[in-house]
Automatic annotation (TrEMBL), chain A:
Species this chain originates from: Arthrobacter wenxiniae
Taxonomy of the source species: Bacteria, Bacillati, Actinomycetota, Actinomycetes, Micrococcales
Name of this chain's protein: Extracellular solute-binding protein
Keyword Translocase among UniProt keywords: no
Key words, A-Z: Periplasm, Signal, Transport
Lineage: superkingdom: Bacteria
UniProtKB/TrEMBL annotation, chain B:
Species annotation: Arthrobacter wenxiniae
UniProt GO BP: transmembrane transport
Domain ABC transmembrane type-1: 75-281
Assigned keywords, A-Z: Cell membrane, Membrane, Transmembrane, Transmembrane helix, Transport
Name used for this protein in its record: ABC transporter permease
Annotated coiled-coil segments of the chain: none
Bilayer-crossing regions: 30-54, 74-97, 109-133, 161-186, 216-240, 260-281
Primary location group: membrane
Compartmental location: Cell membrane
A GO CC annotation given for this chain: plasma membrane
Amino acid sequence: MSNNFSPVYNRRSLLKAAAFAPLAGLALSGCSTKSSSSAPANSTVTVTSYGGSYNDQLTQTILNPFAKQSGIKPTLLANTSLAGLKAQVQSGDVQWDLVEITAPEYETAVAEGLLEKFDYNIISDKGLPGYAKADYGIKYLSFLFVMAWDERVIPDGKAPSDWAQFFDQNRFSTKRSIYNQLSDSSVLEAALLADGVPFEKIYPLDVDRALRVLGQHPGKDKLLYHSTNQEPIQQLTSGEVALSTSFNNRINAARADGAKLNFTPQNAVLAGDYFVVPKGAKNKEAAFKLMNFMSNDAEAGAAFDKVTNLTLANTPALSKLPKEIADSLPTSPKLAEKILLRDDKWWAQNLKQTEQKFKLWQAS
Amino acid sequence: MAQATLARARPGAGGPPSGAPPKRRRRAGWLLLLAPVVVFDVLLFLTPLGKLIGSSFTGGAYARVLADPLVTRSLVNTLSIALTSTAVTVVLGYVIALVLWRSGTVMRVILFAVVLLPFWTGILVKNFAWAVLLQDNGLVNGFLHNIGLINAPLPLLHNRFAVIVGMVHCLLPYAVFPIFSSLAAIDGRLALAARSLGAREAAVFRRITLPLSAPGISAAGLLVFIISTGFFITPVVMGGPGDMMIANEIDYYARQLTDFPGAAALAVILTVLVSIIAAVYQRVLKAGGQHETL
């Protein structure tokens, strides 16, 4: 008799087990994520940047030497974004420790209370140039927004030397690729420069005029858009376009890989990115230690400047650089006459409306 | 010994030996089978969905979003792109299903492979492959230029045409299979009878095949339309800025504007809009005498 019932019981307990299996799985996975990240705090640091060749360079010149010196293990991700930072801070599950964002995004993040205050007891500000130090971050990087071309189609001798030539349809009948967002790029400044506005009169930006200029030269049908920093390199090397906006380090990296691309610092726009620490970051101290290393270690800083051709906010590094490299850095006094300094303040106040206008212009 | 009792016990457990209690127990057992799905849905679908809907009602998100001309534009884009690609997909899908249905075993296997291969390929791969084919210096323009048909490249990429091409390619299997299964269910003797009474092929198609496969067509239409309203990557890779669909606008709100309630409101608007259209579609079909839809 009891034998008759036992299979039924077995089946029921099986069903129960089946019903709760997913729960068990969830519970288990919950445990495992916790245990893996609750390795001693500040023995690791998760850094996010924009990916591509730049991430390799950052790892090679800064993160690896930092790991060797400090014993802290850095992980570098390629998907940095203010949206990601905000989502993590709001959900209370902060995975990132040191996050790269653009200058206008920095102002937004501060205003929305998403960031940890920087601890300048851990970070020595001795190595920091005046423009770099901020309450909630360090403007650690300066780069040039430049015009780039495909040397196979446009030999250097015939290349554009200012934005008017870059956008001139009579000079170059090919398509041009421009960045589809403005937080990081200076497409509108370029358009105004092309229209003959002098450097000192660019800001406050006349957005309508800039868009009108873009619509006339080269015209919308001659414009393609890119949405990541590495995309113009693909568009140029694949022959989809022969001219593109880009950043000086990206073109240099592509050249080092053998791509027949070039750019000019003439008429470039000098802009910068911040490193910030999200509110509630698990490895805050490790992040500050990394910032301290990045801003003060002369060897690592010089290696970074040399490989990327960007200026790290690290003054001791400058004295270690050969003259020709120091002169070609975005912040070099030699270039000051030729380039426009991006107005972070204007952008911080006007980014959202301007992005919206630009997007609408693109779509209509 | 134990095996023997087990074997005898099984039919006993399955049958109705003694009135109501075991029956109820059995039903409870079957309901318990649903538990994993329910747990899964509640935890991973309904809870986040509820949170999303909740957050869409914070900070005047709907008013903000609906006042944005980009949103209106992308909603109009979404509807017009989805309707166009649904129409094209269903027509092409019907033709393929018809050929599949009428062909012999070998041909059928080959055709199925042709339909299924893209189905198994990632959408990103498919879209980039199309981009390589359609770009200014791509294969299609290169070929047309080489045979002397064109002097300047045709604008085949980064426009509405390209988006439709890319979407139809991804959507075709979703149309072929429902249509094929409704064709396969048609009794072959009907066509034989019609022919024996002197009907031409066109009449057989118009009066037997088409009406009997209509449920498949309407199911395919609804399925393809719903899937096509959610396309994200194809407008990015193959479209221009003017082809932005609502999913791209949601991404823009979330990532560029970091306006999460706005993005949530857009997602809710899309869901409500698609639900209304689907309901109206089914109602219209029912009124037209069809009863078998999704």
